[in-house]
Amino acid sequence: VEGTPGPEVTPTSYENDDASVASATATVAARGLMEQVEMAWQKLTKGDEGADEDDEHELRMRDVPDDIYDDSDDLVESLDDESLFRFPAVGQGQLGDINVAGRSAFYFLVVHKKQSQSSPEGFIDLIQGAQMATMTSTATIEARSRSVVFRPVDHSLNPDPEKFHTIDGLLRSHASEPDQPPLVCYPAKGVADFEQWSARDLNAFTDAAVARYRERGLEPANPDLEKAPVVAILAPSSLDIVVTFFALNRLGYAALFLSTRLTAPAYSRLLEMANCSSIITTESFSQIIEEIQQERQLQHLSLVGGADYRDQNAPPFRRNCDPVKESHKIGWILHSSGSTGFPKPSESRSTNVYLNVPPSSRIYLTNYQCLANLRKSFSMKCFCVSPLFHSQALMELGRSFYTRKAMYIGNFSFPVTRQNLVAALKVAQPEQITTVPYVLKLLAESGDGIAELAKAKVVLYGGSACPDDLGDRLVAQGVNLVGNYGATETGQIMTSFRPPGDKEWSYMRVWPPVADYSLFDEIAPGVFECVALDGLPSKGPSNSDDPPKSFRTADLFTRHPDPKKSNYYKYLSRLDDRLTLVNGEKVLPIPIEGRIREDELVKEAIVFGFQKTVPGAIIFKADRAAEMSDAEFLEAVWPAVEAANIRAESFSRIPKELVVVKDASIAYPKTDKGTFIRAQMYQQFAEDIERVYHGFEKGHAEGTLQLDPHQLEEFLLGKFRNDLKVPLPDAETDVFSAGVDSLQTTRMWRLIKQNLDLGGHNLSNNVVFEKGNVRTLARYLYELRTGDGAEKQEDEIEVMRSMIEKYSTFTQHFPMQSKQPEKEIVLVTGGTGNLGAWLIADLLKRPSVAEVWALVRAPGQAAAGARLMQSLVSRNITLTDAEAAKLFAVPSGFSKPDLGLQAHELNHLLSSTTCIIHSAWAVNFNLGVRSFENQHVRGVHNLLNFCLRVTLPSPAKFFFCSSVSTASGTPKPATIPEAAIEDLTHAQGMGYGRSKLVAEHIVRNAMRQGKAAGLHARVLRIGQLSGDCQNADWNPTEAIALMIRSALTTKSLPALDERPSWLPVDLCAGAILDIAFSKTSQNAKEGKVGAGTDGSSEDADLVYHLVNPKLFSWKEDLLPALRRTNLPAFEVVSPSQWLDRLKKSDADPVRNPSVKLIDFWEKKYGGGAPGTKAVVTQEASQEESNVPGLTFETLKTAQASHTIAEAVDPVSAGLVERYVEAWLRRWVE
Q: Domain end: 732, 753, 786, which one?
């Protein structure tokens, strides 16, 4: 029962006739409530063995023992023996709409215990569940002529703050409990892979973090100080922030939480006002820190990471201090949003989740005040996606922690999208969802989002008002939507908790005792300002003497039209003119309006946008612009709007499409001083505002451009770069990481709608974030228009034949030198890829190699070198000075006959190159074969011609790194010989494998034509490469890694009927050089040029299979090995079941990259297929078949390469555990 703080619980009743408050009917000592209920339960159930099933649903008073209420006679009034109790058969904590004609809430709890048959040990949890269920559904207990609304949310049942004194004391107390439920749950690396941490875990993390911060120069605060020193935290939300806050409290510091979106001057001002000279931050804010340090002295410490505090076994740390004294020191500091200029540190006696925070808000909370507020917990497992520098997230995290309930925190390293939210909610399964209306809007875009909301007992929104149509739709579909209003200076004022069947979610109700100390002052007809009066326990400062010592919130409301609901209020707007967008962002219109108004053509400017995604503006023409058309006027004043936008935060910027132009002659509401009256202005021009938003959000007529995927990429990149001024470097850049904000994604959505033919389909407003990058977005838009995503059908086999013919004419070799060099000069492509990097590393170690030239796709020499070195460093490949001196990285373009080389580079290489190893190829399973022509097929032709253009006595040798996918479409069962594939239909059914088969034929034709000149050209069909043996570094974006990663999102892995062949990449590199430089292992050591590849070779010498001849079982060997790793527990399911789960998982390829290969896997495992039978698990797809699969011969390869002959499988070698460990580290990053 919600009442005044203290050990007493006061039930509250309301008369039916006027809803006025009646006196409390009884008082129950909270400390003895559990014992009383348990005693009553024992009495009630004694001798009840003969009861039938109906007794659980219907019980008459005469059946209740006379002495059941001996300990609480004053709780209720007496009833007749015939009084009947009825209650439904519902589950524990899910009471629903319970109507009890009878005694009291006390007896209701007793009866519910009988119904649920819970044990005495679990009854406390039952009561807490009953409290929340009745709070959210408001059970009605009818007694005679009085209707009592029972609200058993008794915060006094939660431990008193004096038990803990400080935040650190709370943590230590919880850590000492014998049972350790999860309290803080944060994703490990994705959006739904929550790691669960108990208080004991966090206590250990805190000790370790304390040790790390002390090492970095942050010593414990002097306990004799009257005030706690302040340390600021400036970093993206993460578990590291939670641990750091606990560590600071343990060290005796107050934590100043800083928003990550401010400017350096704003941070400097906040630090000055909070008297803060130390800051904990991350590398991403280094530029900001440097700017701040130019103005003030600032100690800069790096934020601890997981490696600093996990599994550290740090010694316990405890300051020698007086906990009572510490309880009165500041625990944390929050700041306002800066709506009237710079943000301000804020102080208050208490706080809650608010719809609006006035510009004068001040939140300095002592440890005791923090705990007192955290005590106001609903005692439910909660989910919150707000960042941890917001009071909403901090308070709800603390409240859940206070009552030892789990808080699931969204991962702010990822954009907030429906898919991410749904994925997180499905895992978290919260009882309470605390959010802002923007998140509700995202979830309401689909049935799965609404379903997750409906599962929660309560969805509590704050931060801004929820649009009526959105709230109505959610409530109609079973969401228990509850508004929560308050202010930092006032505490919670009212909520919209209501009985079942009451659909008026948007009307919040003010109840005693708050109602006795609140005034809704009618400042205009039907418009009320909320005023907190002196005497309200949660009120902090005062800002008005009207009434005396009151606090005027500047929040305006309308009252319910029903006189019987005179305590129902609906939020209207802000008196101080701040606009709150639907996502909770606060727009200060005054500076924007002022800058636009400076233009001499402008008479007046008014910014609008309440509850919208972005703001707009009404601009009135000045008299001198009266003759201009609206379009001319808008173009003329647009520079002024842009100037205002530049000064504004990104979410406050006004797009041109949301400007309403009005003539100077149109009258508008204004004061005697000529200032417009904002609220009336919005009412007068409501139709204009809605009209421009409809055009902006719904779009005009759909565009007509029909582009292929590549053209779409160019179109989208152009729009990002030219229209949105976002210089995306390429189509695969993550738009969220590139800094694209929600306004820009909305504008891009509109540009797409205006220009592109979408085939009549709807387009999600959030599509840019959902798809993640331009390439994925372009492919999606193409598939949306074409229906099934298939390119216009073209006979790809004929295209392949045409390409082979087109690129099978080669230049002649004209030797101009008489002597072959003693050492190798090797040209390598694909050096920035995995295989290429290991090829370069191996080549540089060989004494027989004099120079290694890496052809890199880069805009210039410096960029080429940087990309190559980054590739090597990222794989932990280190070079000696001697090795580095042999390496040359140059920018190139394979589509050009001269390979894009500069003249001096070209001349040098044509006069000295002895060997070319070509490993560069785009791994893209979605493109047709023609898409590979320009860069790849033509590139093979140019490289072969380059070999023939070399002026040495013999052409440069050419080794083409092909793929087993060139044969994966072979009718099964089959054994693939180490020879040319004549039938072009035997390649995989995708452009990737087909283009490589085209290249194989081109290589063969070059070898045949260049036979007389001694051209040695070889095809190296490479199977599935795994991570290297040295570092266990396996590219996490490859198919196998993405399949294993799916265990994080689907909690399952497929039971494949496969015997894979995985060859570690460094061993593959070694095998290539075995074949390139020698016939046997002995010759490999000697590094003899050309051994085994003499000019008399026929086609039989053309092909080698670089696959691991040592196989293993997916089900019997790999899956058990994976269970021994740190992967979360997963279920082994059929391939089709796994695929179904993957399709239902997060569809965003940025956060859930596994979904990018759904189509690829669908062809292998869809339709209930048992799985491929292929012996070799390939990097590309195999067509589905129910017959035994393919075997790739390796006899000749094993003879030429000792590396292949001596290979072992990665499972037996213990590499699998190392692979997963490395993946998990990278996925976390």
A: 786
* Full-model pTM: 0.47
What is the DSSP code string of 29-87? EGGGHHHHHHHHHHHHHTT-TT--GGGGTEEEGGGS-GGGGGGGTTSS----TT-EEE-
Give 870 or 38, the one with higher predicted confidence. Answer: 870
Selection from 1169, 1175, 1138, 1170 nearest residue 1155 by Cα: 1138
Q: Letter for the amino acid at 949?
A: R
C-alpha to C-alpha distance for 1072 and 1076, rounded to whole angstroms: 6
Q: Are residues 212 and 354 in the same domain?
A: yes
Tokens in use for 1218?
A: 């190392």
**Is 571 within the bounds of a domain?**
no
**Exposed, middle or buried: residue 852 (CB in 10 Å: 0-12, 13-18, 19+)?**
buried
**Final residue belonging to a domain, choices 316, 337, 369:** 369
Number of domains in the chain: 6
Q: Is there a single domain that holds both residue 1016 and residue 875? A: yes
The mean pLDDT of the chain is: 78
Q: Which tokens in the block code for residue 1106?
A: 């670089």
Which of these ranges, 305-309, 639-643, 695-699, 990-994, has the smallest mean pLDDT? 695-699
Residues 1024 and 893 occupy one common structural domain: yes
Euclidean distance between CA atoms 668 and 666, whole angstroms: 7
Residue-wise DSSP of 126-166 = HHHHHHHHHHHH--EEEETTEEEE-----GGGSPPGGGT-S
Res. 1032: pLDDT tops 60: yes
DSSP state of 1002: H
Residue 627 sits in a domain whose CATH number is 3.30.300.30
pLDDT at 153: 54
In a domain, 664, yes or no: yes
Instruction: Output the pLDDT for position 671.
Output: 52
Alpha-carbon 1205 to chain mean position: 45
Pairing of strands 616-621, 602-608: antiparallel
Residues 877 and 990 reside in one and the same domain: yes
**Is residue 1025 in a domain?**
yes
Instruction: Average the pLDDT over each of 32-36, 442-446, 1005-1009 and give the range with the smallest value.
Output: 32-36
Structure tokens, 188:
């490990």
At 183, phi and psi to the nearest 5?
-115, -40
Residue 658: its pLDDT value, please? Answer: 94
Quick: pLDDT tens for 1144-1153.
887 766 678 8
Q: What is residue 73's predicted lDDT score, i.e. its pLDDT? A: 38
Exposure string for 803-821, b = 16+ CB within 10 A, e = fewer: bbeebbebeebeeeeeeeb
The residue-averaged pLDDT of 123-142 equals 33
Domain holding 1142, by residue range, is 1114-1228
Closest to 447 in 3D by CA, of 1152, 1144, 1158: 1144
Q: At what angle do helices 796-806 and 991-1009 cross, to 10 degrees?
A: 30
Dist CA 1012 CA 996 (whole Å): 25
What is the predicted pLDDT for the residue at 857?
84
- SS3 per residue for 466-531: CCHHHHHHHHHCCCCEEEEEEECCCEEEEECCCCCCCCCCCCEECCCCHHHHEEEEEEECCEEEEE
The enclosing domain of 971 has a CATH number of 3.40.50.720
CATH of the domain at 216: 3.40.50.980
Q: Does residue 14 carry a pLDDT above 90?
A: no
- My answer on whether 667 and 753 are in the same domain is no
User: What is the three-state SS of 292-305?
Assistant: HHCCCCCEEEECCC
Q: Where are the beta strands (DSSP E) in 800-858?
A: 824-829, 849-856
Q: Is residue 518 part of a domain?
A: no
Using the predicted structure, report yes or no on whether residue 1171 has a pLDDT greater than 50.
no
* DSSP H/E element including 661: strand 659-662
Same domain for 326 and 225, yes or no, is yes
Does position 17 have pLDDT exceeding 50, yes or no? no
Q: Tokens representing 564?
A: 């019987």
Mean pLDDT over residues 534-550, rounded? Answer: 79
Residues 152 and 230 in one domain: no
936 plus 1081 within the same structural domain? yes
| pLDDT at 324 (0 to 100) | 93
